[in-house]
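TA notes. Do not distribute before section.
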Amino acid sequence: MLFRSHAFAPARINELRPFMEDLVHRLLDDIAAQGQCEWIEDFAVPFPLTVIGHIVGVEDQADLRRIKKWTFEWITRRGLMQTDEEVVESTLQELEAQRFFQPVIDRLREQGDDTLLSTIVRTEIPEWGRTLDDSELATATLQEMFVAGFETTTSPLGHGMKILIEEPEVLERLRADRSLVPAFAEEVLRIESPVQGLFRRCAEDVELHGVHIPAGSMINVRYGAANRDGAEFECPAEFRLDRPNGRRHVAFGSGTHLCMGAPLARLELNLAFEAILDRAEKLWFIEGANNFTHRPNFVVRGLSELHVGLDLKSR
């Protein structure tokens, strides 16, 4: 909550709007020259990754590519679907990430700057009476900033593009009324939750649907299932722009565990989809190139790849 108020306050995020708008169009310019792309690799990854790199203070594209690999390994290991050998390799990659960030953290301890990472390194936690130590910062850097900062945006950017092509009536409504773009983004988050579930420890004894869960039990809270709960959302498997309670999804968690990057992700999604609607005269799947598979992972849900054609106007 402390870092969210410092670094992800609405005013601070709004300051990034010009940077993000320019980045969206630069990426689309590159795609326009080809007329087609692998959407995940060419847009859904580099857009939010470059934004969070800019916020943190990592601008070098080579460094960002390395960080992308590290976050992928971190997410894959926690997705519980690796062999023993793959777990070892992912762990080694995480150690490499820690070695990369340690000198940066040391420098910021000595002399801060105006980046998010500096805020996290130098801010004292009131309840603890101290700043974060190296171990805590290693988690905060890779997990809280880069994983939360762009992976939860990459997934809905991929699924959103897929839905725009699969649901032509949705596309036409959005073309006719841009005010529906935020509702579109929320419905993408609901129906294709980027984080399907996270492990939590039960704080006290609880009875849930006739099942006793003792305090201390490890449970997996399935956000993806909650977001398709028919008791909360009418016809939950249908994509609807006009859901009156569409924003009640828990794609970003809730309460204490609300993703601190949620406001940033929402702005990124809105800017990206608005730019696509403004510039794309036609969208289509590349014939024979897609199998629409998802990365094998128990925790996160993201398309492995998405090959699309785009007829894009100049900006």
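Switch to the second chain here.
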Amino acid sequence: MLSWLGFEHRVALRFLREGRMQSLLIIVGVAAGVAVVAYISALVSGLQANTLEKTLGAQPHVTLSPPDEVVAAAATPASGAQLLQVQPRAQRPRSVANWQALLPLLDAAPGVAAVSPMVAGAGLAQRGEATKSIALVGVEIERYARIVNLNSKLVAGTLRLGPGEGILGRDLAGDLGVRVGDRVNLVTGTGAGAVSDAVRITALVDLGVRELNRRTVLVPLRAAQSLVGLPGGATNIDLALDDVWQAPGLAKSLAQRWPYKVESWQDTNAPLVSALNAQSISTGLIRAVVMVVVVLGIASVLVVSVVQKRREIGILRAMGTTRGQVLRIFLLQGAVVGALGSALGVGLAVGLIWAFTHFVKGSDGLPLFIITLHPKMALQIAAIATVCGVVAAVAPARRAAALDPAQAIRL
């Protein structure tokens, strides 16, 4: 049955078969370690992907806006008196300079998936006796829908923004007691400078964040320009990227190229980035510790095997087996244990992932988030575990190869 295998392979497999129980135990131990690493890796990857999807689903990856207005320091008086305090300037809505000419340049930039101009401001939404503060957002709906994937967030109505039309967050509509087809009065400014406009609701959206759902009102870009008092302007230009992790590099490049304030989603979500980095570091530490345990387990079993097989090793050496062949016999044992344990561990991890997806549910009866073990990740983990098996066998293999045949046979 084993005749087609080389000499070292046959002896390595025979040694493993003779110590069936200890071989089985270490293979199960390796499988448990691989399963833990694979499952935690898939779990953390799914959690991070779900967190990013919820966080970035309602915001751009990169934002261009006018630089902040600052107060220039006053000259020091001739008397030598010092100005201890300078009152900061109140920030007012300002337009991105030459934003119309900027759009085609950003559209053509490598890695940019979508570009959308925006006018953002604060105001009030009124319906009968109900009045709510709002975040007014003026957009070109076709462009903006590509930034935040509005189609997936539609709750009711049709994603359309014509003159005199608006889209409300779901919770804001509930607070005002309105639905699709009703009219809402929007007011910006105060006193004699107040501006108002009535819009008919064409759609309700769920942006994934309750605060956004309670404040957001989308209107056509020109309507927002009139309400905010910024004719022909755009307060922000939002960008969506093919790879969200390229946002800092692109933001830095744009800031060096043009005199705008450029922020990536990492800049505006620093606590989230810190949490994701902490998760990744923790996962890496867990992987390292588990792999160390796997290496020690395989090494300990093979050390015991060397002690148990001293007489057999001595006989093989007396029959002409070289030190190199003995070394390869035990290295192959480590590789076989690592490979079998890896295959069993990946299968166990797939079962754990299936159990998590089907039995761990949220309050809505749906899975908390979807996790999958990608084949590439599974192959990487299995390969690392197999290499660890070979590394773990190095010390026992060298010890076996160094045995003196005469002394080993006499013992």
